[in-house]
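Annex B, item 7. Sequence and structure tokens for protein A, then protein B.
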Amino acid sequence: QVQLQESGPGLVKPSQTLSLTCTVSGQSITTTYYWKWIRQSPGKEVEWVGTIAANGNTYYSPSLKNRASISRDTSKNQFTLQLTAVTPEDTAVYYCGRATTFSSHFVDSRGQGTQVTVSS
């Protein structure tokens, strides 16, 4: 059974770069599936942030205007989100998840989520 766990700072200052890591167990991130970052801000729907495929290809939500970047460490079975130039609008609970499609916010398994607040 796959398990995912997000980690990273809970507070980031405006204009800085947010970095979150997802550690995956029970499933290799290099063999199959898509591995996503999604987020949910208060009062808003779940939003797709970006995806890294098993072959390493990456896909991002156009709404983030090229601020998102996803990389991976295959030796640790981890993938990492970096979001640059954050603003208070990036405040959200961020989840990593596993999916069968590369876009949209749908996942079939996800971590418990980590709260990220952007504030000075």
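Protein B:
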Amino acid sequence: QVQLVESGGGLVQAGGSLRLSCAASGSSFSINTMGWYRQAPGKQRRLVAAITSGGRTNYADSMKGRFIISRDNAKNTVYLQMNSLKPEDTAAYYCDAVASVPGGQRHFWGKGTLVTVSS
């Protein structure tokens, strides 16, 4: 099993910034891609950004230029720097880790951290 613990969420005014962190622990499995998803009330969970162990990144179009994902492989930690936040960024943000397990790959999820952006 891989345990993921997110931190850094909170309340911020529009235009402000927040930095989310997600630390992975508890497993000898090799973690490949780590990423962030978000889910607003009544909506589906959607990709925000992802980063491979080699540093290749992928962003949802609406986050490009505002959000930056980074990763410390030695600490098995992924970060999401969120700038120029908008009220529509309000959501629960979930950390995702894709690990190589016997038989293939598996997604592991954190419990989420809430980000609220006030107008």
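Comment on protein B: The mean pLDDT is 94.
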